[in-house]
Amino acid sequence: MYKCMLSHEIMNSIAPVTSLSDTLLSMHADPEIAPDDLKRNTENGLKVISETGKGLISFVESYRKFTRIPRPERELINLNEFIQRVVILSSTEPNFPEVKIDICIQPDDLKVFADPNLMGQVLLNLMKNAFYALRGRADACITLSAEQGATGKVLIRVRDNGPGIPPEIMNEIFVPFFTTKEEGSGIGLSISRQIMRMHGGNLKASSIAGKETVFTIII
Q1: What are the DSSP calls for the chain, one per residue?
Q2: Does residue 107 have a cis peptide bond before it, meaning omega lies within 30 degrees of 0?
Q3: SS in 3 state form for 154-211?
């Protein structure tokens, strides 16, 4: 599946570049085109080729990240300390000063056996998405909570009071390379879910339009 996706994206990027290159070559061979027009069209064409090439490189890098997640190296993590560190790392978000952050860990010394680097990647990605959803909101709030569920698994939730996720795309958000952000790669949530499944857990989402979005890590 993912190889087909990679081939599809590469072909979609290369086809217009090849066509544009052929057009520019034809223009240079046409003696009737004025030098100023030729210069302007060549510059514009090269800009398009450059931007398309950079976009393709970015896509391939994202694909490599998605397919090369290391095997978890687990250790005992104190979630209270761990989540506090994640909040500090999230302070680089542009709207960090405008967002209230609540933390609730029950019990206070709750621990989980997981890879701290991979878990950190998951939580930071969820926090990044939450901050993005809260841009421009006056009463912006993120709640980070953790508890031991009835089945013995630990549940870590990242809740934001943003606009929510539209129901029509709720089933798409974990699909690799699906994104609603102009600058997004579309692999953050799919990688995060894959990381949690490699831990024997999962990552789920729920949302209420106009009220909140909640991502739950189950491990």
Answers
A1: -HHHHHHHHHHHHHHHHHHHHHHHHHHHT-TTS-HHHHHHHHHHHHHHHHHHHHHHHHHHHHHHHHH-PPPP--EEEEHHHHHHHHHHHGGGSTTGGG-EEEEEEESTT-EEEE-HHHHHHHHHHHHHHHHHHTTT-TT-EEEEEEEE-TTS-EEEEEEE-SS---GGGGGGTTSTT--SSTT--S-HHHHHHHHHHHTT-EEEEEEETTTEEEEEEE-
A2: yes
A3: EEEEEEECCCCCCHHHHHHCCCCCCCCCCCCCCCHHHHHHHHHHHCCCEEEEEEECCC
Let me know if 32 is exposed, middle or buried by CB neighbors in 10 A (0-12, 13-18, 19+): exposed
Give the number of C-alpha atoms closer than 13 A to the C-alpha of residue 212, restricted to the C-beta side.
12
In whole angstroms, what is the distance from residue 102 CA to residue 140 CA?
11
Instruction: Output the pLDDT for position 64.
Output: 62
Candidates 124, 135, 128; CA nearest to 99 is: 135
Q: Are 95 and 176 in contact (CB under 8 A)?
A: no
- Any idea which of 2-16, 52-66, 106-120 has the lowest mean pLDDT? 2-16
Report the relative pairing of strands 100-106 and 141-148 from DSSP bridges.
parallel
pLDDT tens-place string over residues 90-119:
988 999 999 999 999 999 999 999 998 889
